[in-house]
């Protein structure tokens, strides 16, 4: 396995935005996917979601609530108009719509979002330049979201970027500039934590993701890392 790309917080964000965290791991030397096992996992996960959650009571779920509070208080975004990624997917499934099918690795990432309720991003590492940093956006920066037109950022956003570009607007949108494709052989998966989501839970989910990847993807996985900002 090649060296793992490093992910860090900028110094300003580490102290100014307390309680945010990231867990990440490398998926390397991807050779193929167990599609049958993936389809069974998707069916099991969708059925479990529909048996477990109530659309009208989602706001009472602690992890959903934590993301919504972060949107309101830190990002100044109305979470009922711009949903956190995991909640948006959860609502789609609870409304009876099918699980989106994009690419086996992305589909598996979506399964992990439903099973953990965490917002999770995945990036083609061969499209990434250098190490990654979680920081505030620079006013006027351009973000290229998957499935939407380019967007000019205002500077209040939190972004994950490499040395050249923004990969992710935390914690809800990924960029098409590092999107998974049929040629992807090396990827980075990132789990996004916000205040109210414990490091213990984030680490537990990281272990579950690692196991799930090994069950579905013919690849090398790991090691996993967790970074976080100050809480006091």
> How far is it from the N-terminal to the C-terminal residue, by CA?
37 Å
User: Architecture, according to CATH?
Assistant: 3-Layer(bba) Sandwich
- What radius of gyration results from the CA coordinates? 17 Å
What shape does the CA trace take? globular
Side by side, the strands of the main sheet go 1-4-7-8-9
Uncertain ranges: none
Task: Characterise the protein shown here.
- With 232 residues, the chain is an alpha+beta fold.
- It has a single domain, classed as 3-Layer(bba) Sandwich (Phenylalanyl-tRNA Synthetase, Chain B, domain 3).
- It is built from 6 helices and 11 strands.
- It has helices at residues 11-16, 35-52, 62-75, 85-94, 104-116, 199-216, and strands at residues 7-9, 21-33, 119-124, 132-136, 142-143, 151-152, 158-161, 166-169, 173-174, 187-193, 217-228.
- It has a 5-stranded mixed beta sheet.
- A hairpin with a 4-residue loop joins strand 7 (158-161) and strand 8 (166-169).
- Helix 2 (35-52) packs parallel to helix 5.
- The chain starts with 6 loop residues before the first strand and ends with a strand.
- The model has no long low-confidence stretch (mean pLDDT 93).
């Amino acid at each position: 396995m090649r060296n793992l790309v490093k992910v860090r917080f900028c110094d300003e964000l580490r102290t100014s935005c307390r309680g945010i965290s990231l867990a990440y791991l490398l998926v390397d030397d991807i050779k193929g996917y167990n599609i049958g096992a993936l389809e069974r996992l998707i069916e099991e996960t969708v059925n479990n979601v529909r048996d477990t959650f109530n659309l009208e009571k989602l706001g009472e779920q602690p992890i959903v609530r934590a993301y919504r509070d972060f949107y309101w208080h830190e990002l100044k975004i109305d979470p009922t108009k711009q949903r956190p990624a995991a909640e948006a997917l959860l609502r789609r499934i609870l409304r009876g719509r099918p699980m989106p099918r994009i690419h086996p690795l992305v589909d598996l990432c979506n399964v992990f979002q439903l099973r953990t309720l965490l917002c999770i991003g995945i990036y083609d590492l061969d499209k990434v330049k250098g190490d990654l940093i979680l920081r505030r956006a620079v006013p006027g920066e351009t973000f290229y979201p998957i499935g939407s037109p380019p967007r000019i950022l205002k500077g209040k956003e939190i972004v994950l970027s490499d040395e050249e570009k923004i990969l992710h607007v935390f914690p809800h949108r990924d960029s098409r500039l590092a999107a998974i494709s049929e040629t992807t052989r090396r990827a980075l998966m990132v789990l996004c934590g916000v205040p109210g989501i414990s490091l213990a839970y984030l680490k537990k989910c990281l272990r579950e993701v690692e196991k799930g990847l090994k069950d579905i993807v013919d690849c090398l996985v790991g090691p996993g890392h967790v970074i976080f900002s100050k809480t006091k």
